[in-house]
Amino acid sequence: MGLCVRIFVVDESTTRTIAYAIFGISFAVMIYFIAKQAAQNRKSFVDDKAPKIAGADTLTGGAKNPQQFDEPDDDALDEMAKLLDEDDD
To answer: What is the pTM of this model?
Structure first.
């Protein structure tokens, strides 16, 4: 005979009831978190797609050296001439 000791003797229907209760609670918690995430996703989607109000948004970025665009260089002038078909060949 081994060292198998039974501490609790539980009826099969009680075990099934406890398992169903644990599954039910897990399912309810899962549905809560899914519904909460869906509401958060819906809110962020609506906020992203809302009409933009002039001046309410901030524009980021810009040229690092805007003075470089004041005077075009020779390559830029050649490119513009080529695009305008004014190339003197």
So the answer is: 0.47
